Amino acid sequence: MSPIKHLIFAGAGHAHLFALSRISEYVKSNIRVTVISPGTFWYSGMGPGMLSGTYADAEDRVDVERLVTYQGGKFLEDRVSEIVPHENYVLTESGKKLEYHALSLNLGSAVDDKLVEPGTQNVYPVKPISNFLRVRERILQKADSPEPLKLVVIGGGASGCEAAAAAYRLSQEVARPTLLTLVHSSHQVLDEHPRRARKIMQEWLDEQEIKLKLGSSITRIENQKAFLEDGTHVSFDIAILATGVRPPHLLKVSPLRTAIDGSLVVNNFLQSVTYPNVFGAGDCVSLENQELDRVGVHALKEGPVLHHNLLAYFNGLAMKRYEPQKRYLLILNLSDETGLAIWDRLAIRHPLAFKLKNYLDLQFTTRYQKTVVEKG
Ligand SMILES: Cc1cc2nc3c(=O)[nH]c(=O)nc-3n(C[C@H](O)[C@H](O)[C@H](O)COP(=O)(O)OP(=O)(O)OC[C@H]3O[C@@H](n4cnc5c(N)ncnc54)[C@H](O)[C@@H]3O)c2cc1C
Prior knowledge:
This protein has helices at 14-20, 23-28, 47-52, 64-69, 131-141, 158-173, 195-207, 249-252, 296-315, 351-375, and strands spanning 5-10, 31-37, 41-42, 61-62, 74-77, 80-84, 89-92, 97-99, 102-105, 110-111, 123-125, 149-154, 178-184, 210-214, 218-222, 225-228, 233-235, 238-241, 245-246, 264-266, 278-280, 285-287, 329-333, 339-343, 346-350. The chain is of the alpha/beta class. The longest helix has 25 residues, at 351-375. Residues 10-15, 36-39, 44-45, 47-48, 79-80, 106-108, 126-127, 159, 162, 248, 250, 282-284, 294-297, 299, 330 line the site of flavin-adenine dinucleotide (FAD).
């Protein structure tokens, strides 16, 4: 048998979950596996539903530590702080140096929080997804106060609209007077989506008691106030930040080739174009010559290809190409038991859209939760 090789999975997100549920296959191929992750897996599609109360937090997560360790892998609760690909090692925040034969990066993306002054409290970015639970707890904590609750959502893209809908639903359920403001820099919400989707979302928002500030950019967030470019401000008890995502900075400062946005450039085998023993998938990568939306659909579809290619890399077998689908279905949970389904230029708001999303999301998470129980 060939000598033991070491594979490091950095991050335990949507793109790695498939491979992490099959760690026993690596172990059988004489590959030692270490997974470095600061925490457990949270499924993004159900995050807003966790805020509104549609889902319990346990329904939205998968215990990756158990998943990994019961199959013979090692789980390290830590973060990669530096990648040194020319010497095949990574450093972690806790000060460990880990050498590898192959490295797979699934570091996700973070919400740009440069507008938030250091030390500012009660501002929750939509990533990590566990923040939706923190916002829920915070709203519930304030439920007994006689003053109206002031909530602001900054960003009117898909995740900002879902977050606003979920927060609105929760505040109605706790029967608490709430001033909810949605601020968006463009003149239309969902401005990166088709016209029909924008129109439906706008009409839905107009029907709710949600104050819209469109065409207004936030310049600074400080002392429970979000300042707008015209000098006015929105005061808040809780702010949700949904201002778009960017890949983690540690990629940009590494010797790996990165794209303009700082994501790792990979070929269709999901392999770094400069270091072939470094792989990557999900929001933290860009395919060379092709732009990808930062959606979980790509991360999830890349998962099986990545798993195949990592095994193929070690075993000297042919790798598979990841060919991204051109169109994909996106369903926004409006937290009123309807969903806004968007497919290409088509969009519809309907209870069946929510039912379909609910079915697909629960099917996905329960499959992995069951694997944990079975392997455990
Ligand atoms: C509210 C919301 C709802 C969404 N809904 C949908 C949807 O319905 N459909 C859809 O297609 N997309 C949706 N998305 C987009 C989707 O969340 C992302 O595209 C998806 O999470 C990307 O998956 P990933 O595997 O790249 O990253 P993630 O699943 O975010 O995983 C990245 C992991 O890396 C870890 N990590 C970060 N830094 C380090 C480090 N230095 N060292 C080690 N680990 C690290 C993180 O802890 C995290 O666990 C939604 C996004 C949001 C915010």
